[in-house]
TrEMBL record:
Gene3D superfamilies referenced in this protein's UniProt entry, alphabetically: Ribonuclease Inhibitor (3.80.10.10)
Entry annotated with the keyword Nucleotide-binding: no
Keywords assigned: Leucine-rich repeat, Repeat, Signal
Organism superkingdom: Eukaryota
First and last residue of the signal peptide: 1-19
Organism: Onchocerca flexuosa
Descriptive protein name: Leucine Rich repeat-containing domain protein
Length: 328
């Protein structure tokens, strides 16, 4: 194949990709459409969103992403997306209160990402999600979801990233994450009302890399609250009310690299407490209530590279506290 023929081939291939955008979207002012090799990206904002879905059902198209935002959608009915192939579905900024158990029928082995953020859900829509075996990313942030008391992620064996931020979750019971413990890598529980680390629910999440519980009501980091989390690399607890950390809070922290404890109520860290985080590279304890930093507080942390203590009331720092040559 000559260079000229190669150029013609890729030009024709690009034109084919652009042809994926349905013609009925060309004059739409509330929707945009961009074509890519692996499908189209359609983003709609406004009340025409549901009508666009019905039009798409008549025009078989590989959809990489479909966003239906600000459409005042209250309920997702049965077979709402049937005959469509959607890899990523965004239903943010609506008024969704309910989903039919077969709302996503036909997408079970296709949809990889789903976001139903900033809506009116009061519970995780288990019946609608139960068969979503290909789903990898789920965001239900900023709804009205309350306590989670039973397994709600059944048959969702591909989930990697779960965002439950900005809800009303005060308690998570033991078996909630059982069905995703082999795959879950990132869990976001920020801006809820947790008063304690949900240790039973988190135990055994062997592949969890990031755990985020910022801006809750957690007061103590008690003994053995985080166990069997051998892959955990990032632990973020900024903006709680933590005043005490037990020396065996996380006894298996061999992979923890980033520890965020800013904006809490810490006044002192007892000698040896931080030894459990012996591989940590970054510690943020800014905006707490420390008045004195002693030489045994950070001893033994040979991999520590960055330590943030700004916004405290530190008056005394012992001489050898920061003789750690590895701090940068």
């Amino acid at each position: 194949m000559t260079q000229y023929e190669v150029i013609l081939f890729f030009y024709a291939f690009a034109n084919c990709a652009l042809a994926f955008c349905p013609t009925f979207l060309k004059n739409q002012t509330t929707c945009s459409c961009f074509a890519y090799i692996d499908g189209v990206v359609i983003r709609c904002s406004g009340q025409n969103g549901p009508a666009v879905v019905e039009q798409l059902k008549k025009t078989p198209t590989e959809i990489r992403e479909l966003a239906l935002e600000n459409a005042n959608i209250v309920e997702i009915g049965r077979n709402a997306f049937r005959n469509l192939r959607i890899k990523k579905l965004i239903l943010d900024n609506n008024r969704i209160r309910a989903l039919h158990p077969q709302a996503f029928r036909g997408l079970e082995s296709v949809m990889l990402e789903l976001s139903i953020s900033k809506n009116k859900l009061t519970a995780i829509p288990t019946d609608s999600l139960i068969a979503m075996r290909a789903l990898r990313v789920l965001s239900l942030r900023c709804n009205n979801i309350g306590d989670i008391k039973e397994p709600v992620f059944q048959n969702m064996s591909s989930i990697i990233d779960l965002n439950l931020e900005c809800n009303q979750i005060c308690n998570i019971e033991g078996s909630v994450f059982n069905d995703v413990k082999e795959t879950l890598q990132n869990l976001i529980l920020d801006n809820n009302c947790l008063s304690a680390v949900p240790s039973e629910a988190l135990r055994g999440l062997d592949n969890l890399i990031g755990l985020h519980m910022n801006y809750n009501e957690i007061k103590q980091l008690e003994s053995m609250q985080l166990t069997n989390l051998s892959s955990l690399t990032i632990l973020s607890l900024t903006g709680n009310k933590i005043s005490t950390i037990k020396s065996d809070f996380m006894p298996q922290a061999e992979n923890l690299r980033y520890l965020y404890l800013g904006n809490n109520n810490l006044e002192n860290i007892e000698a040896g407490v931080l030894h459990q985080f012996k591989q940590v590279q970054v510690i943020d304890m800014s905006n707490n209530y420390f008045t004195k930093i002693t030489d045994d507080m950070f001893s033994g942390l040979e991999h520590l590279q960055h330590l943030n203590l700004e916004g405290n009331q530190i008056k005394v720092i012992t001489e050898i506290t920061f003789s750690l040559h590895y701090l940068i």
